[in-house]
Amino acid sequence: MAAQTRYSNVAIVLHWTIAFLIIGLIIFGLLMTNPDMPNRFALYQLHKSFGILVLLLSIFRLVWRLFHKTPSLPNDMEKWEVFAAKFTHLAFYGIMIGMPLLGWAMVSASPLPIPTELFWTVPWPDLPFIPEGEQLEETFKFLHSNIGKLTIGLIVLHFGAAMKHHFVNKDNVFVRMMPWTRVRD
Prior knowledge:
This protein is mainly alpha-helical. Helices cover about 65% and strands about 5% of the residues. A two-stranded antiparallel sheet has the order 1-2.
């Protein structure tokens, strides 16, 4: 049986959909925390809506990943590079699932009775096991904000590694996750 050289179409679609959603969430997050930004309430609601969407898609992606094999890393990668790649992927799964949960916990802890309605139509409940309280809300906000900053760094690292593989190593690591591309021989 030939070795798998590309990710499945489902994995590729999930990867890029979640990636663009996360980049949008970062942009929304930066805009909505600016006190001079008009329509901040709408941005907060969109941020929460897209965050829950990322959570649901990421859970589906994790389940998909558990039951579908991925292409192997190149044999000539250094041990530290293999470790970095595996660590980065685990960190992304932690972020893709953990950040929306932190945001949801923050909203649930808020003493302000502002309901979450996904895309202004679907009511979304607070987490029932999170007690209401300003201090707890601030703790979740601190974690959500600072992990968001770390996420930006991880995205830059991930993109830089992909570019290194494509332009320096000239291997298939980058193209195997790109839609409509062929893996080099």
